[in-house]
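Hi Y.,

Following your request, here is the sequence exactly as I used it, all 263 residues.
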Amino acid sequence: MQNPINPFKKALHDKRLQIGLWLGLANAYTTEICAGAGFDWVLVDGEHSPNDVPSILAQLQAIAGYPNTHAVARVPVGHGHAGVTIIKRYLDLGVQSILVPMVDTAEQARAVVEATRYPPQGIRGMGGARASRWGRIPKYGQEANDQICVLVQVETQAALNNIEAIAAVEGVDGIFIGPADLSASLGYIGQPDHPVVRAAIEDAMRRILKAGKAPGFLTPDETLSRHYIDLGGVFMAVGLDVNLLARHTTALASRFKNPTAKA
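Below is the corresponding structure, written out as tokens. Let me know if you'd prefer a different format.
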């Protein structure tokens, strides 16, 4: 048995557009529905969703049935002892592409990368579990490092100031711009589409590309998604399962309860 190649990581290095969907319902059944929709990648959210390690595992197993869709997982924290531990647990589940929130400095980014690598390149604890197919991939320990994709989130003014240094960290494959927290950090809480915030996002994307790394973004606004794709966005999440469910159920109820209202 061979260690799986990470096609998502290669696509990011080649700057090939990858269209994704954010998953926050924390349910393997709905995750499987979304995994079969045709997205290049889906992100299982462990930060702002009621997920734990067993529910992440169940969703990874659901996504595995759709080999053209790559599973990315966001950890709740990536720093300190807690971050090292949770990253290790996600990787042992078989996650090959990991998104880490609130990375403000090159030092933090370097610590994240080290947490995803086996020695001597890093400090990931030896184990492997499901990732090594319980030891059935004989060279997993020697080959795993090369297939791990590290995505870090830039979502504060401090992180914006340090983009070039973060991008220069070996092992960082992509930089995701978090619009909600970034808007709050810039003083425009709840206004990710404010002109000041948009200008900061556009400038960040240009700087990430210039540094040779792949920029990523999330927005359910189709016009805005296409705008950021045109600016060079590489891993773009164009919707969220919770948002789709909330929006379409509300619209459906409204059409029947308020038939004269505009749909």
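The beta strands are 18-23, 41-45, 70-74, 97-100, 149-154, 172-177, 214-218, 235-240.

Thanks again,
Q.
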